[in-house]
Amino acid sequence: MTDSASPADGDLVRSPAKVEVPEHVEQAIRTLIRWAGDDPSREGLLDTPKRVARAWREYCQGYGEDPSLHLSRTFEEVGGYDEVVLLKDIPFQSHCEHHMAPIIGTASIAYLPRDRVVGISKLARVLHGFARRLQVQERLTAEVADCIWENLQPHGVAVVIEATHACMTARGVRTPGVGMTTSRMMGVFRDDERSRKEVLSLMGY
Ligand SMILES: Nc1nc2c(ncn2[C@@H]2O[C@H](COP(=O)(O)OP(=O)(O)OP(=O)(O)O)[C@@H](O)[C@H]2O)c(=O)[nH]1
Ligand SMILES: [Zn+2]
Question: Which ligand is nearest to the CA of 178?
Answer without folding.
Answer: 1
